[in-house]
Design goal:
single chain, mainly alpha, elongated
């Protein structure tokens, strides 16, 4: 890897700033999840609402590991907020695939960045996947975080193979939609940095 493609201190600062912005928008859009059925729609909604931010981020930092770092930081924050390690493991897998997609497009292809963001956006499906894979642990943690018992049971009852598939599909479609919205709003910036 050439020195030009390595992350520098200013890139890490930019990653930190975008992580804070991304997480704030993600948290605000996640507030819709106060109803169990809408909780399952969170990944799709987050893809749409954070697409502009992430596409701008990908245009700004066209280097390896940038997406991996921002996604992993978000997963670590979510883990610290009382989620299981399933979220972190899931995120690392999603980020690795997202990075490979960006690399395939040489970091400056809109198509590959769009697909990379769609995969990136599935990291928050891990939050729902933990309900599926570790129901009892999730219920314990949710109670300690102050979630209502009826809400917890409603989520647990709704999460199954079919709903998980729909959550992932929604996350990917939401990610693609968010990327396209981002491209439309940031068209001049994308042209300036050579993303086509």
């Amino acid at each position: 890897m050439s020195n030009e493609k390595r992350l520098k201190i200013k890139d890490l600062v930019t990653i930190g700033i975008f992580t804070v912005i991304y997480f704030a928008v993600m948290f605000a859009s996640g507030m819709i999840g106060i109803i169990p059925i809408l909780y399952l729609a969170n990944p799709a909604i987050m893809g749409i609402t954070t697409g502009i931010i992430m596409m701008f981020f990908m245009a700004k930092i066209q280097k390896p590991w940038a997406v991996f770092i921002i996604g992993t930081i978000c997963a670590l924050v979510v883990l610290a907020m009382g989620n299981t390690y399933i979220v972190l493991i899931h995120t690392i897998i999603s980020m690795a695939i997202a990075e490979l997609l960006r690399k395939a497009g040489s970091y400056n292809s809109f198509k590959y960045n769009m697909f990379s963001f769609a995969v990136f956006n599935t990291w928050n499906c891990g939050i729902i996947m933990q309900i599926f894979l570790a129901k009892d642990r999730f219920a314990e943690m949710a109670v300690t975080r102050g979630m209502n018992q009826d809400f917890i049971m409603g989520l647990i009852n709704m999460v199954n193979y079919k709903s998980i598939l729909l959550v992932y599909l929604g996350a990917i479609i939401g990610g693609i939609a968010g990327a396209c919205i981002g491209k439309a709003l940031l068209k001049k910036h994308f042209e300036k940095v050579g993303i086509v």
